[in-house]
Write a structure and sequence with these properties.
48% of the residues lie in helices and 14% in strands. It is of the alpha+beta class. It has 2 domains: 6-285, Butyryl-CoA Dehydrogenase, subunit A, domain 2, CATH 2.40.110.10; 288-453, Butyryl-CoA Dehydrogenase, subunit A, domain 3, CATH 1.20.140.10. Strands 2-1-10-11-7-6 form a 6-stranded mixed beta sheet, with no helix packed on it. The longest helix is centred in the middle third of the chain and has 30 residues, at 289-318. The structure holds flavin-adenine dinucleotide (FAD). The site of flavin-adenine dinucleotide has 20 residues, from strand 5 and helix 14.
């Protein structure tokens, strides 16, 4: 079962989990209209693993696990492993136009990273390292789909967790038994939680202070664990709309959720760190998870930006503006954005180094961090370009493309035709653009790209603090100054 099909993924979802939508307990998430499209798109990703065109890249024989596994689980030991991982991420991202940021590969590679750095967890306690490795083997063997929830509710940002007016709101340990930890409280934002198999919890940002020990925990549990409730945001999926009218929102709306843990038992073999602020504050950096997860997120972003660039180009062609000097400049800038993000993964692979502690080949962190820092700048820039190219044409569209077959079809055709394109085809293009930049789905994506790598100010400060080539450049400058 190590490489699942879409059908096997779907069958796993009907497991009694407690998912709430609009005040109702959802009985079967795979069949629930607001989730159905995202579930189906995720199932298709699993099916791609069995497609002869992609099988060799998307899956790999694993001596460590003892069978064939999905590529993201592979712990990379060569540059070739890294290249193949990136190619696998790109195949999945292309299946969703880069619109499903939390496809299973993201957390699968995160768990591979944690298992690869078992020494970090062993420093804390040998049992914690054993738990991480055996959990990684479990999800790799069963090809499971994880969601994750890092953040506490947005309470009072000026206060530590234990100093909030109600310190029981953020998720914390309330008891320890011979079977495991009892955790209680709330975490957010778990994208894809309603239809993921399991949830990985660890707290972010890693700035824990004395007194916050009860909140400093890393663990994983199945989504149908007793006491675990998933509370969903409104779906932005175009439930009643056709794929032509809502090309992206009818297929790729990942649901974001808050997760409530009501006296949940986390068995000891699923506890990776607990009540330890010192290790928790080190984990994000010292587990080296960022190197492997940012490799996936930048590959996904390259696909999404490339998709937007092509859309901008096709729109300029549709309205005959491609040769206008400001449009040519804009298209060049869009290309530059795509290429910078594309280069981050390749540059990170080229500059990858083996960690002598575990023999793992890590892509270069600083090359990847450039992509995480610039994504939130480039994505809104490309959205802005879409709006500039489309102008009012983005809003003057028929309710449905089927109207072209109605008695007003001829008038629509005449009113919507473009430079060298029929009214119908131009309306299709512009409806796609509206889904990207004007729909609720599009607004969620703008927020996602701004936030998915964490709050940007903290990200940038961390990039500078940790910059490994700082001394190289500073010494170069100092030598030059000395020579004057
Ligand atoms: C669409 C979407 C999907 C996401 N999916 C996931 C997911 O799958 N899993 C997951 O774990 N997370 C997910 N996230 C969460 C994401 O990582 C966070 O949104 C991001 O880290 C920012 O945190 P925040 O939302 O708490 O915003 P905040 O950190 O609350 O930021 C809001 C504002 O508060 C300010 N601020 C922050 N800290 C302080 C302070 N101490 N004092 C004063 N001001 C402060 C910030 O500068 C900012 O202006 C998702 C987010 C989005 C938008």
């Amino acid at each position: 079962m190590a490489v699942r099909t879409g059908q096997q993924f779907l069958e796993g979802l009907n497991d009694g989990r407690e998912v709430w939508y609009d005040g109702q307990w959802v009985p079967n998430v795979a069949e629930f209209a607001p989730f159905k499209a995202a579930v189906k798109s995720t199932a298709k990703l699993y099916d791609l693993q069995h497609d002869p065109r992609f099988r060799e890249v998307l899956t790999v024989e694993s001596p460590a696990i003892g069978e064939r596994i999905a590529r993201p689980y592979e712990i990379p030991r060569t540059r070739d492993h890294l290249r193949l991982k990136r190619e696998a991420y790109v195949i999945w991202a292309e299946a969703t136009c880069g619109m499903m940021g939390r496809s299973p590969d993201f957390l699968n590679v995160m768990m591979a990273a944690l298992a690869a750095k078992k020494s970090f967890f062993a420093e804390c306690a040998p049992a914690r390292a054993e738990a991480v490795v055996s959990y990684y083997q479990h999800i790799a063997k069963h090809d499971l789909f994880l969601t994750h929830a890092l953040l506490d509710p947005q309470l009072d940002k000026g206060k530590a967790r234990h100093q909030q007016s109600d310190p029981s709101i953020p998720l914390r340990v309330i008891d320890r038994t011979k079977d495991g930890l009892i955790v209680h409280g709330i975490k957010r934002i778990a994208t894809a939680a309603p239809y993921a198999d399991e949830i990985l919890v660890w707290p972010f940002p890693p700035t824990f202070q004395a007194g916050e020990e009860a909140y400093a925990n890393v663990f994983a549990v199945p989504m149908n664990t007793k006491g675990l409730k998933t509370l969903c945001r409104p779906s932005f999926a175009a439930v009643d709309g056709s794929r032509a009218d809502h090309p992206l929102s009818s297929q790729f709306d990942e649901i974001d959720a808050t997760v409530v843990f009501d006296h949940v038992l986390v068995p000891w073999d699923r506890v990776f760190l607990h009540e330890d602020i010192r290790f928790l504050n080190r984990m994000y950096r010292d587990s080296r998870m960022r190197e492997l997860t940012a490799h996936q997120t930048n590959a996904r972003l390259e696909v999404k930006l490339g998709f937007l660039y092509a859309l901008i180009l096709r729109m300029t062609e549709a309205i005959g503006s491609t040769q206008k000097s400001d449009m040519m400049e804009m298209l060049g800038e869009a290309v530059a954005c795509v290429e910078v993000i594309r280069s981050t993964t390749r540059s990170a692979e080229e500059q990858a180094t083996v960690d002598p502690e575990n023999g793992v080949m890590y892509p270069d962190l600083f090359a990847l961090q450039a992509g995480r820092a610039l994504g939130p700048v480039y994505y809104p820039k490309l959205l802005d370009m879409l709006k500039r190219v489309g102008g009012g044409g983005l809003i003057q569209l028929p309710v449905s493309l089927s109207e072209f077959n109605s008695p007003i079809g001829a008038e629509l055709e005449r009113s919507l035709r473009g430079a060298d394109i029929s009214g119908r085809d131009k309306a299709q293009l512009f409806k796609l653009a509206w889904d990207v930049c004007g729909s609720e789905f599009g607004a969620r994506h703008a927020l996602y790209e701004m936030n998915y790598a964490g709050e940007r100010g903290a990200l940038l400060a961390g990039i500078h603090r940790e910059y490994g080539r700082k001394q190289h450049y500073v010494q170069y400058l100092d030598k030059f100054l000395e020579s004057l």
